Amino acid sequence: MPVINFTYEELYKQLGKRLENKELIDILPMISSDVESYTDEEVKAEFFPNRPDYYSIEGIVRSLKGYLEIETGLPEYTLNNTDTTITVDSKLENIRPYVATCTIRGISINEEELKNIMEFQEHLHWVIGRDRKKVAIGIHDLDKTKGPYQYRAGKPDEDTFIPLESDTRQTLRQILENHEKGKKYAHLLEEYEYYPLIVDSEDNIMSMPPIINSERTKLTTETRNLFIDVTGTDINAVTNALNIIASNLAEHEGTEIDTMKVIYPYHEDITYPQFEPQIIDVHTSTASQYIGMPLTADKIVETLEKTRFKAEKQDEERVTVTVPRYRIDILHEVDIIENIALGYGFNDLPAQLPDFATVAQPDPKREFDKILEQVMIGLGFTEIKSLMLTSEQQHYTKLGMQVEEDRVTVTSPITQDRTMIRKSLINSLLEFLQDNKHEELPQKIFEVGDVAYIDESAETKMKTVKKLAGAQISSNANLTTIKSYVESIVSNLGFEIELEDYDSTVFINGRSARFAARPMDDRTPFALEGYFGEVHPQVLTNFELEYPTIMFEMEFSEK
């Protein structure tokens, strides 16, 4: 989840009120934050992916103003209707078809605020934009451009501009080949005949979405007016991203938003930003049932005003709620009810015991896990538990492996490090060692967990398989040690080990082995195989580990 860094001074400046630092740290979790860490100058707070409006300090301040009752109710922004347009090229319909734009005037930004804007942009790139594939955002110095604007198809070997943080004019194709951002995101454009461009009326290129902005329109502390463009493949995501950016930046005192009309050849024209609010009714009986305490319509209005909604009592049973467009997490009445609880104060909700009793019993599926855990603990290992979700970078690239097509991917990942379901436990152990490299050595860890494989014959098109993996990092870790661990585990499970050669980018060549285990009792209900070895120095470097590491992994499958 995105971590937002901000200083107390900057927050208090925008809040218009000073708090005791300890008071702020206590309040942040009450507005759906997880305070990761804090010092005497700075706070690092983590927010859930369903609240991208919190991904900048302006959104946090807006919520705090309501919680502290400095400002309550629906936020109001100065919105000026203009005749400025951006015209879309028909050639982009099957490349990156949608764009949303507007301008923000009268903003004043210092170095810290400039940094916050850039971080805000990158957080939205991942959470809403799926690492720019679905949505990409450009923020420019408006005074260095001249409208009307165009969103047109650029020719890769003819159109040129100077990309951000560069001093050399390059063709669009050269930018994909040479620029850091170009190489990173080239896969999003390189298959197309044309590349998208944002240009002004004098054909000055402002941006090549979703790759890089122009150095010409770079933001500085002298910038006072902003041009914002959001492009993408999903019109709802593009609209949501622009609404969030515009409303957050408009929280700066003295700012105004100028609208801009997008003229499409293949879609109806749209004027942005789209601030028309959503209207949802909430019922006092439903809210009382979900929260577990009696609530009146008047109390619901009070709590929702604190969470920056407009709430109007219709009668004792129904309240009509006006939801600002930056709150893209509000989909249903129950989402409003969650905000009633937030506005009431989670710590102030009365505690009560449930009116029914439950009796717990062991999960029979865990019986075999317990046997494996006992064996590993007996060998001096400490158990860890990690998520089944991982990323191609962690699961393949850092291990020196090619990314496999035969993997279970996440359709709509919420973070860039959770894009697929693991096929191995090895990278999870290495990530854990990386996160704990400050701890004393030796470290001996293991995990019992499920992995997922593609299985076209299964109803869900995938199957889960249980694995056991272990690792040791120490100054004297070697092949003999890991071999003895594996032999002991296999023997305790009632198998005899049979070794064979094994080559893998994970391990040092000649210092690893694959094994198949033959059961000593024919009644054994599963088959066992795996591998072990000394981890390759390049893999250790990729995970920032500085000492020899040995690992094994074994898989259990039904006969």
Task: Provide keyphrases for this structure.
globular; alpha+beta; Phenylalanyl-tRNA Synthetase, Chain B, domain 1; 29% strand; 7-stranded mixed sheet; 15 helices; Phenylalanyl-tRNA Synthetase, Chain B, domain 3; 559 residues
CATH class categorisation of the largest domain:
Alpha Beta
Which overall shape is indicated by the principal axes computed on the Cα atoms? globular
| Structure classification | alpha+beta
| Helicity level | 25-40%
CATH architecture tag of the largest domain: 2-Layer Sandwich
Question: How do the strands line up in the largest sheet?
Answer: 13-12-11-8-5-16-17
Rg, nearest Å:
28 Å
- How much of the polypeptide forms β-strand, as a percent range? 25-35%
